[in-house]
Every structure is written in C-alpha cells, then in structure tokens.
Amino acid sequence: MNSIRWLMIVPFIGMLGGVPFVNQVTPYVFGMPLLLFWLVAWVIATSVIMAIVYRFDPAVKEDEQT
C-alpha cells in the first residue's frame, strides 16, 4: 500500500477520536457550538485530504496513462 494513502486515516481519527475532548457547548466558534464546528471543520478537512491523496497517488497516474 502506498504511503500517501495513510493520510486517509487522519479524518477518521479527528472526527471520532477528538469528539470526547470537544464535547462542550459553551465555547462558540463562528456562532456554532464547539462540537458542531469541530465536525464541520473535519468534513472540510476530509475533502482537502482526499484531494491531496488523489493528486499524489501514483496508482491514479497509472490509470490515466492507460
């Protein structure tokens, strides 16, 4: 397995592993409770991470050439 694909586990850890630490209502970020902001931020970060993996994965380049 290619090493760039290991980046795909980061959103999983961020969403599920970080929730117990940010499970609070009182601090608001952009008008959202901290937990909601945390999850929205990870959804956006997941899109960015998937784009990076797609861009640098050598298997994609091999498929494009055939």
Give the tally of β-strands.
2
Mean pLDDT: 86
Gap from first CA to last CA: 21 Å
Structural class: mainly alpha
Rg estimate, integer Å: 16 Å
Task: Count up the helices.
Answer: 3
Largest sheet data: 2 strands, antiparallel
- Spatial shape: elongated
Describe what you observe in this structure.
The protein is mainly alpha-helical and 66 residues long. It has a domain at 10-19 and 27-56. It has three helices and two strands, in the order αββαα. The protein has helices at 9-22, 34-56, 58-65, and strands at 28-29, 32-33.
Short characterization:
The chain has 66 residues and is mainly alpha-helical. It has three helices and two strands. The protein has helices at 9-22, 34-56, 58-65; strands spanning 28-29, 32-33.
Q: What structural keywords apply?
A:
single chain; 66 residues; mainly alpha; two-stranded antiparallel sheet; elongated
How would you summarize the topology of this molecule?
Layout: H1 9-22, E1 28-29, E2 32-33, H2 34-56, H3 58-65
Antiparallel strand pairs: 1-2
